[in-house]
Amino acid sequence: MSLQKMTTKKIIEKKQKGEKIVTITSYDYSMAKIVDDSNIDLILIGDTLSMVMLGHQNTLPVTMDEMIHHTKAVSRAVKNALIVGDMPFLSYKVNIVEAVKNAGRFIQEGGAEAVKVEGGTEICPTIRAMIDADIEVMGHIGLTPQAIYRFGGFMVQGKTIEAAKKLIMDAINLQETGVFSIVLETIPWQIAKLITSAVDIPTIGIGAGPYCDGQILVIHDMLGIFTDFKPKFVKHFGNVGESIRNALKGYREEVEKGIYPGLEHSYEFPQNEVDDVNEWFEKVDINEEALKLNKMIPK
Ligand code: KIV
């Protein structure tokens, strides 16, 4: 089925029509193709690739070049969903010029159609500069994993009255600056609900309860592939990790027993010439023949 290409404008219209927005992360061509065929609205090449693809402890080590490499792979696969590249740690908070250039790399080199940045009111001037350069931006507030050392770990954010008020004001300032949507990560559902009613742009929740305009999950979490730890908000919609283990067990067993590959998985030599090859193989000294061939290669 060929769907219509999703745009930031259509994402906003979905909120206006009261339609939920379904989004997910992807990091490679084959997975992104399956996701794109599954009527998903938005694919984020998340900096979580640092953990689920590269095996780091958190999202801080992943670099711009690594993010661009994976964004290119995803954008080669995607025809329908909106493609959003996640700006990694230090790529947009050192200075505004660097931030705009790095955001531009996601679009120009990676093939993304928008970028996502973590932060509230304090990041608005940087977002404004990106939008002035015609780059669409998605916000991200709450538990912003690039700040885990400041938070002291992966903890629920917005749990005090002051912190909740700050999140609501951040969301409004992000909207005023021009972001097309805001990720709300790991905050109490009551605060996510207030934010969702306070802004006209869609909120996309992850660990932010059922009242957001849309949801996002890390694909390796919801498929049961990444099992190093499981936050409360993660639901396994499949057990793909177990399927992969079973498939590998079957492969190992069949190779060891000589069951796989059978002739049905093998290529046929032309029937009328196979006797000639066999006869040659029996007759000549193959080591000598190989030596003769080797001597013909210019050294
Ligand atoms: O990097 C990521 O995957 C994200 C989502 C969890 C929102 O930022």
Structure description:
This protein is α/β, with parallel strands linked by helices and 299 residues long. It folds into two domains: 8-236, Alpha-Beta Barrel (TIM Barrel); 246-296, no CATH class. It has helices at residues 8-16, 29-37, 49-52, 64-77, 96-108, 124-132, 148-151, 161-177, 189-198, 219-222, 240-257, 274-283, 286-295, and strands at 21-25, 42-45, 82-86, 114-116, 137-142, 181-185, 203-206, 214-217. Strands 1-2-3-4-5-6-7-8 form an eight-stranded parallel beta barrel, surrounded by seven helices. α5 packs across α6 and α8 packs parallel to α9. The longest helix is centred in the C-terminal third of the chain and has 18 residues, at 240-257. The protein is elongated and about 90 Å long. 37% of the residues are buried. Residues 25, 44, 46-48, 86, 183, 185, 206, 216, 218 line the site of 3-methyl-2-oxobutanoic acid. 3-methyl-2-oxobutanoic acid binds next to β6.
